[in-house]
Design a protein that fits this description.
This protein is of the alpha/beta class. Helices cover about 40% and strands about 15% of the residues. α3 packs parallel to α4.
């Protein structure tokens, strides 16, 4: 295949099997739509049954084959089981997107140690366990694979309003990406992360509203964003398709900031 004659072939993921956790969340739903539209077979995982049914039906309406699993990747057995169910459904696993996670906001002296640990478990331990399970299967297949974690600009930058748990968890996520990028490089498995800043989702919809409060918060934030706007879901489409496809075969251990230049300044 001469990619210089047909460079778009590098982004072809039709028929690839993608496991997406947190599929009912803001980024997970975007990832499901993107990979469904690109022709992947999907295994969608989420704890919210109603939202999982909604995104699964939407992706099926786009022509995708979808297996929906109502659970959360809370421990080793569950994570290993999700990979096994993907293989049982479609015979292999090519792409893992870990979009599950959480945030708890509180100033350090107001945050219980157990709350801090719950954020670390959801954002770090579960990412590690899922990557471990997927990497084992991908190595057995012997054809490489794509692991994409969801980080944040907060993995690089602090925040003054009670983000010690979240910032620490995303910095740790970045560390996993870099370490696994090195460890799995010889196997052909790439490990990268998408790190968005604020983008439109059900959780952030209020920031896009035409109210004095939203405008004040938005204007303060936008002083740090060279592109001069907040993110839209489609801003994540290109980075995800790149990291999930052959186009990124030489890229591993990278944190790809989808932030309008926020982390550059």
């Amino acid at each position: 295949m001469n990619v210089m004659v047909n460079p778009l072939s590098m982004f072809d993921v039709r028929g690839d099997v993608a496991l997406i956790t947190g599929a009912s969340g803001a980024f997970g739903m975007v990832a499901a739509r993107i990979l469904a539209g690109a022709g992947c077979k999907l295994v969608l995982v989420a704890g919210n049954q109603a939202a999982l049914d909604e995104i699964s039906d939407e992706c099926r309406g786009m022509g995708a084959e979808v297996t929906a699993i109502n659970t959360r990747p809370v421990d080793e057995d569950t994570c290993e089981g999700l990979v096994q169910q993907a293989v049982q459904a479609y015979g292999r696993l090519d792409i893992l997107v870990v979009a599950s996670g959480m945030n708890k906001v509180a100033l350090i002296n107001d945050m219980a140690p157990g709350t801090f640990q719950s954020v670390m478990d959801a954002n770090v331990t579960q990412s590690w366990l899922l990557a471990r399970a997927a990497a084992g299967r991908m190595k057995a297949q012997g054809e490489g694979g794509k692991i994409v974690l969801v980080s944040s600009a907060r993995g690089l930058l602090g925040h003054p309003a009670g983000y010690t748990a979240y910032c620490a968890s995303k910095a740790a996520t970045d560390g996993i990406v870099k370490a696994l990028g090195c460890e799995l490089g010889p196997t052909g498995i790439t490990v990268n992360a998408i790190a968005p800043t604020v983008f439109r989702s059900p959780l952030t919809a209020w920031m896009f509203e035409d109210t004095d409060e939203a405008k004040a918060v938005r204007d303060g934030f936008l002083t740090r964003v060279p592109k001069g706007r907040l993110g839209e879901p489609e801003d994540l489409a290109g980075p995800l398709l790149f990291l999930a496809s052959k186009a990124s075969d030489f890229y591993t251990g990278h944190i790809l900031y989808a932030d309008g230049g926020y982390t550059a300044g």
